[in-house]
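2024-03-11 09:14:02 INFO queue: dequeued item Lipoprotein, len=106
2024-03-11 09:14:02 INFO validating residues
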Amino acid sequence: MLRANVLAIVIALLAGCTMAKRPMPGPVLPAPDPVVQQRPSGPLPLSTRPTYNLAGYPKAAQEGYVDGCETAKQSAYGFKDKKRYAADTQYRTGWDDGLSICRGTH
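2024-03-11 09:14:37 INFO prediction written
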């Protein structure tokens, strides 16, 4: 009797596994075209000026700082020049510093 009950339970469990619906895969959509991000034209507004004195830093580091800071603030002026970031260590350092310093200030 016990053996029959165990066998019935095992069969019921196995039957439940075969009846489970498998989700159908969704349609494969093409990847969206990458948006080419560009810095807004014209001079940057006063609000983008850094709160720290960057006068002793190279121009590339200053520009990177502003771009990173505006990115952290999620403003319309947030920008990351990916080619320059990869090739110019001063821009990259400025961008990383601007992002990390301004991340907690907005």
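2024-03-11 09:14:37 INFO annotate: The chain is about 50% helix and 0% strand.
2024-03-11 09:14:38 INFO item closed
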